[in-house]
Write a structure and sequence with these properties.
Helix content: under 10%
Number of helices: 2
Distance between the termini: 47 Å
Largest sheet: 4 strands, antiparallel
Number of strands: 15
Strand order of the largest sheet: 1-2-3-4
Strand content: over 45%
Structural class: mainly beta
Shape: elongated
Length: about 240
């Protein structure tokens, strides 16, 4: 049985299970010269492609103390760790991403803010998805309107370069819709820390969502939300819609 880290089988989630190390980073998490170990662990049974019991583990380099942090998305096809300063205080925060969709096309992102001696979960992409709402409407003349229901801003996507078969299924020869048709903005599919826009140090976060048309495989474009953090709270300072 491979635990990846000696002694972790003492935690109830990992007893009598095969523990897989999904990610591992070695950094001075508290900003001192002391090096800590940060792990993302999960369990696996047989040849199942899904990892379960996913947890963040921080091992104190000075004392050897191990702290386990539950990830709300406890199952997924894998994941990883970003160690960046989201709070602009000179300390590294821990971003955790989990490939949670059935095909790995959905990403759940969590930020554990660094409080010095411990970290605390402070952000999830679910907060963004619950707040940002869009309406995706097919229009005549091979167009799709994306409306941000929070700001009432609209963006028009051009479908005219799509294949004749695709367009013929939706439009008649005059470019009119055969039937009313709506799309949808899917959950987050990608996450990327970037250099902060408003602070001289630290990072912001870009979360990307696909704009879907007639099916999950019909990607019309993308919504990118640029997210900053101030005193532990997040704000969206730019929403970019593109094809």
């Amino acid at each position: 049985m491979e635990y990846g880290i000696s002694g972790y089988q003492t935690d109830y989630r990992f007893m009598k299970k095969e523990v897989i190390q999904l990610a591992h980073e070695t950094v001075p998490l508290t900003g001192t010269e002391q090096v800590d170990q940060i792990y993302l662990l999960g369990t696996k049974e047989d040849d199942n492609l899904i990892y379960s019991d996913i947890a963040l583990v921080v091992e104190n380099g000075a004392t050897g103390e191990k702290k386990f942090y539950t990830i709300p998305t406890s199952k997924g096809m894998g994941g990883g760790i970003d160690l960046v300063d989201f709070t602009h205080d000179g300390l590294l925060d821990v971003g955790v991403y989990i490939f949670s969709g059935g095909t790995g096309s959905q990403v759940d992102y969590y930020i554990f803010f660094n409080q010095g001696k411990a970290v605390q979960l402070g952000f999830s992409n679910k907060l963004l998805e619950e707040k940002l709402k869009f309406r995706v409407t097919y229009l005549p003349k091979y167009q799709v309107e994306i409306k941000n229901l929070n700001t009432n801003e609209t963006t028009i996507l051009d479908l005219s370069r799509r294949s004749p078969d695709y367009l013929e299924a939706i439009y008649d020869t005059q470019g009119n819709l055969k039937n009313p048709l709506l799309g949808v903005v899917a959950p987050v599919s990608d996450s990327n820390p970037i250099n902060s826009k408003n602070y001289p140090q630290g990072h912001d976060l870009i979360l990307t969502q696909r704009i879907l048309g007639r099916s999950h495989n019909d990607t019309l474009g993308y919504v990118q939300s640029y997210i900053g953090f101030d005193q532990g709270k997040y704000y969206v300072y730019r929403t970019l819609i593109s094809q």
